[in-house]
Amino acid sequence: PNQLFGWDSQEEVVKLSEIKRSQKVIDKTPRFEIYDRSEWAKFSRRKSITTLTGFLYIVEIGDLVKIGKSINPYGRVVNLKVVFENYGDKRIGLCAISEEHKNYTMNEKILHKYFAKDRIPKSELFKIDFHTAIKEIENGWTGIKVS
Tens-digit pLDDT profile for the chain (147 aa)? Predict the structure, then answer.
């Protein structure tokens, strides 16, 4: 194959297989890890290593769900805790953090559009069940993809 395709070395074959692997990644729904309050420290070090990548987060806030994006999900969830628990009457419950990916901003917009019928006007809060939202995302119904 090296002679047939004009590759000089095995190195070119490896590069081709890496391209094929990266193309497969584009077709998958981002994986989420779910944490309860006692487990927040487990994702405290998760920060984007570049401004090109980030995370989606879904946070249970009382009977509502907040869907957002961040390059520092731990900092964002702690900030939400302060706002909703100290200045509101809502308690943060479960928190889902996506794997790091490039199109996290577009995916946030897609999720907001997908759950629009459940959205509280002029907010990023949705009147949906946390587990239902995660199930719909992980089953691929929302249409978000990793790239």
Answer: 555 555 555 544 445 455 444 444 456 888 999 999 899 888 888 888 777 899 999 999 999 999 999 999 999 999 999 999 888 889 999 999 999 999 999 999 999 999 999 999 988 899 999 999 999 999 999 999 988
DSSP conformation letters of the chain:
-HHHHT--SHHHHHHHHHHHHHHHHHTSPPPEEEE-GGGGGGGTT---SSTT-BEEEEEEETTEEEEEEES-HHHHHHHHHIIIIISSS--EEEEEEEPPBTTHHHHHHHHHHHTGGGBPTTSSEE-S-HHHHHHHHHTT-S-----
pTM of the model: 0.78
Closest C-alpha to 98, from 129, 53, 60, 65: 53
Phi, psi for 94 (deg, rounded to 5):
-80, 155
